[in-house]
Specification:
about 160 residues; about 15% strand
Length: about 160
């Protein structure tokens, strides 16, 4: 099964929203053979998604209310076909894992592998207002929608380029 992973810091805001967005877009495109998940570099297992993340996602018919954080590890990375870092600091940490150049991308610069700077980062809304979460959700949604044709191509091919 093809596996796509989104990575942020705490796995309670950005990456769960990204996971939910892609799952919905894939379902709308009739794709049900892909495992979409998320993880956090600076978290422990088991934390729920933030209230604001759950609310913003729900406004877009995406249910992340049952999400619980997963701590990023090398096994999860190795098992994934495509890994999307939500910010430059995540990309930098993930680059240290084996074969990262073949599957690691910044969400906002995909499919270009060489744009891992702050300009392509999604700001963390943790502790912010509902408006900040809405802005973050829209930023992530726009990036995923833009990346969707290439993601679908890679799923069809069954591997990363």
């Amino acid at each position: 099964m093809y596996k796509i992973l989104y990575v942020c810091t705490g796995n309670t805001c950005r990456s769960p929203m990204a996971e939910g967005i892609l799952k919905k877009l894939l379902a709308e495109n009739g794709v049900d053979t892909v495992n979409v998940s998320s993880a956090g570099i600076g978290t422990l297992d088991g934390y729920p998604a933030t209230h604001n993340a759950v609310e913003v996602a729900a406004r877009h018919d995406i249910d992340i209310s049952h999400h619980h954080s997963t701590r990023m590890n090398e096994r999860i990375f190795k098992e994934s076909n495509l890994v999307f870092a939500l910010a430059a600091e995540h990309h930098k940490q993930l680059e240290k894992m084996a074969n990262s150049d073949q599957k690691l991308y910044m969400l906002k610069s995909f499919p270009s592998p060489n744009q891992s700077d702050a300009e392509h980062s999604v700001d963390d809304p943790i502790g912010g207002s509902m408006e900040e979460y809405l802005v973050t959700f829209k930023e992530i949604h726009t990036a995923i929608e833009s990346a969707l044709p290439e993601i679908l191509t890679r799923i069809k091919e069954g591997g990363s380029k």
